[in-house]
Amino acid sequence: MFANSFGLLHLHQSKLDAQLYKFGTQPHFCIAYVIGCKIFEAMADKYEPELGQMFFGQPSQEFAVSNILEAALREIAREWDRIMWNINQKELANPFENTGAKWKCNDFEVEAYDWNDENEQAYNFKWNDIEVSWYKYLGRGMSQNRAISNDEISKMLDACLVALRNYEKEQRPDLNGG
Q: pTM to 2 decimals?
């Protein structure tokens, strides 16, 4: 498992056995994590796009993105920049930014905001069945297709960092003692 600059916890390594319970109705529902005798609640809010996004932006997803998911995506974007620099020895257009760039591997895909009104963009980032959309750049008008637990975010972060580092090894074996 990888530590990262945001200090995200790898919750799936916890010795505590968390059970996830969903209750409530739309537009909000509560997710309660039962850990021992303590209950922590987190809201998975319906996403409400800003005015410009509502009228001029690409379609959004159903739920608002949590701070921890945004931090995980920022860490993946930072690592993408580092690895692409190592491979190419120059800055490339980062697909997490407003660049028009795309990047895909076997584990995840990311595509910058598409300004072409004729192309309906289903998402900007996808890992397994998790889809995240944003308005113009990562961090603005972010939405996700379903409720996502911190455990899933941690697994996603690990899988994406491993995929990026494996790509780096394939492209530049000289950087890894190969």
A: 0.73
